[in-house]
Write the structure tokens for this entry.
Amino acid sequence: MDKVRTTFDEWAQNGRAELMEKEHGKNVAKFLEEISFEEPFSFLDVGCGNGWVVRKMSSHSKCTKSIGIDKSKKMIIQAKKNKTKSIEQYIHTDIESWKYRGKFDFVFSMESLYYAHSIDVALKKIYKLLKPGGMFFCGTDFYTDNKATAHWARMMNLNMHLHSKKEWKKIFKDAGFETKTKHIKDKDSRKKWKKEFGTLFLIGTKPKKESSN
Ligand SMILES: C[S@@+](CC[C@H](N)C(=O)[O-])C[C@H]1O[C@@H](n2cnc3c(N)ncnc32)[C@H](O)[C@@H]1O
């Protein structure tokens, strides 16, 4: 039994998928607003939950394909119910075992990657799914520097990988990405950590030419 899957199957049915959309929505929107999507692009959301980011991106005039994958079948059922555009697609799979032939301009993931059995394996797969020059945007509120969230793994009773910003950068670098980071804070939030630390975004770019070593 996969506890991550069963936990999020429950969340898909008890209103917490919508709560995540509300909790994460503001910072994600703020982050995405700063990215320029000037050329036609394809988009993948890893751990898409109820599909709110997939829908948001599919309404972008330059978006040609917006796919969401999630290992929770119930999340994917919700996402399919909420589908708004024909360029959206929702697939029930984990990132690690997903067999997909295409490549994406952008891969996105919010509060999902640290649930993977192995972040390294998941990240390698994401790297493979990107076109050369493609970018991976990975948002996390759960990181060591943000001490207020450290108890989440205990609270969830799940195996969640807790890393510092420095460690995340190294993990991305080891997977082959050129990496930048950005903190998106919410100064109006009632939560102190949202004002002081906020969401850590790792921005990994797959080099146009991969090094031979
Ligand atoms: C905390 S929720 C975040 C959902 C959504 N990104 C959001 O912000 O509302 C994490 C999601 O990632 C999914 N997930 C966790 N590990 C995964 C994996 N290895 N492959 C695909 N989905 C995964 C879970 O099923 C869950 O729906």
